[in-house]
Every structure is written in structure tokens, then in C-alpha cells.
Write a structure and sequence with these properties.
Largest sheet: 4 strands, antiparallel
Helix content: 25-40%
Structural class: alpha+beta
Number of helices: 3
Order of helices and strands: EHEEHHE
CATH architecture: 2-Layer Sandwich
Mean pLDDT: 97
Low-confidence stretches: none
Radius of gyration: 13 Å
Distance between the termini: 8 Å
CATH class: Alpha Beta
Strand content: 25-35%
Number of domains: 1
CATH topology: Alpha-Beta Plaits
Number of strands: 4
Length: about 100
């Protein structure tokens, strides 16, 4: 079953670290079967109106997304991010 990896950046504390993370994370997630669908700031907000950078990656399954997260390549990306942002990341299964 398809899964969605959703990351929201609540606060960017060090743009250089975020950039270093992005350079490593994208190829790591793509190599693990992820496809980037969207990333950036919202074009429109409703309700809480939070203007947070959001990234949406599609994986073939929840298991594939978990494996991508736990992979050495993605762990290297997380190490590069170390304290550079406050984020929320979740994986949800498609309906």
C-alpha cells in the first residue's frame, strides 16, 4: 500500500544545515524508492494558517518509508541537519 512521508518545518534555525541535509536526503530517499511530489511553502493556508515549509514524498509502502528513514544514507542526512531545524515528520498509509 502506498505511503506518504510528510515533513513540516516549524522553524529553520540554521539554513546551511538545512541545505546540507537536503543535498543528502533527496538522493537517499529516492534511492530507497521515494518520489518527491511537493516541497515548499503553502500557496494558501486555512484554519490555523501556519506558513511552514512542507515536503511530501511518496513511497511504495510504509515499510519502504521506514527502511528509507533507517538507511545509513538518510541517517547521514539527519546528522547533517543536527539542530538546524525544528520539524515534524510522519509516514501515513494511503487509503
Amino acid at each position: 500500500m502506498t505511503a506518504y512521508w510528510i515533513s513540516t518545518y516549524r522553524e529553520i534555525l540554521d539554513q546551511d544545515k538545512v541545505d546540507a541535509y537536503a543535498r543528502l536526503a533527496r538522493p537517499a530517499l529516492e534511492a530507497a524508492g521515494g518520489t518527491f511530489v511537493a516541497r515548499g511553502l503553502p500557496e494558501q493556508t486555512y484554519e490555523a494558517g501556519e506558513v511552514t515549509r512542507t515536503v511530501l514524498v511518496v513511497f511504495p509502502s510504509v515499510e519502504a518509508a521506514r527502511a528509507a528513514h533507517d538507511s545509513p544514507a538518510y541517517q547521514e542526512a539527519l546528522a547533517a541537519l543536527d539542530g538546524g531545524a525544528r520539524r515534524d515528520m510522519r509516514v501515513i498509509a494511503a487509503l
